[in-house]
Amino acid sequence: MAGVRLGLIAVWLVALALVTGPLGWFCRAGSPVIEGLARRTCRFLLAVLRIRVQVLGRPGPEQTARLVVANHVSWIDILVLGSLEPLCFLAKREVGLWPIIGTFARLKGAVFVDRTRRRSIPAANAAMADRLRTGRSVVLFPEGTTHDGTQRGRFLTSHLACLRDRSRLEPSLDASEVQAVALAYSDPVASWIGDASLLPHLWAVASGRGFACAVVFGAPMTVRPGYDRKALGRDLQSQMEVLVSRGSTLNAVGRVRTEHEPSPAEIGGPVFGAMKTEIQDRM
């Protein structure tokens, strides 16, 4: 069955490649058409891999661009978060070189950074600030690389400076929104550690019995101009520890159910499903 699942994924990616080429000519990055296709793609791939998404809390309003700060466990994180709402990601430079995926990431408005060169950070921060200025929410993985979900990596705060860059772009802006979100998986097979090869890990996931990913949203934080980047990083890291613990507990007791109710689709546009979460919390 793993071969069948990977075959379905391959067919979808080939079809995606055929579609994204023309879309790049006619649609701007992050357009509703692109976002709708991205959301459908994420949900399709999660369904094929039998990954169930459970949600506690809710994202901030789509009308408000915010910096989403998440822990990083796997490439699956991008599918999970991308299935819930329109987002663009800060990604390592190598992702932009991947066939099909790199092209699609650029159409989604991804920002690429060379993690081996600190000199690339200011340009990446400026690009993130520009995404926020234009109303796009941006996902930052401050650990910089993936970890197994049981241990946290070093929490890097250099990209939190993008909020200061945004303040320079928008002098009239009173504050920016930052929201922590934690991802916790019910099966260790989800972890994609460090520089591990993608295809063997994809095969391991496709060969398994499926698993759940608990997504726990914290309350959005208001960050004023002149904030202390290091202090903000400490606050977010402390909040992340609590959210990851809640996610692990939810996976253990299985008391969160998420229902996606798609709204009627406009021709040529996306279907942004309304998300309802039922919580039976006896912790």
From TrEMBL:
Q: Which GO terms describe its molecular function?
A: 1-acylglycerol-3-phosphate O-acyltransferase activity
| Cited Pfam families | Acyltransferase
- Keyword annotations for this protein? Acyltransferase, Lipid biosynthesis, Lipid metabolism, Transferase
Where is each Phospholipid/glycerol acyltransferase domain found?
Answer: 66-186
Task: Give GO terms for biological process.
Answer: phosphatidic acid biosynthetic process
> Which pathway, metabolic or otherwise, does it act in?
Lipid metabolism
- Protein origin, superkingdom: Bacteria
Entry protein name: 1-acyl-sn-glycerol-3-phosphate acyltransferase
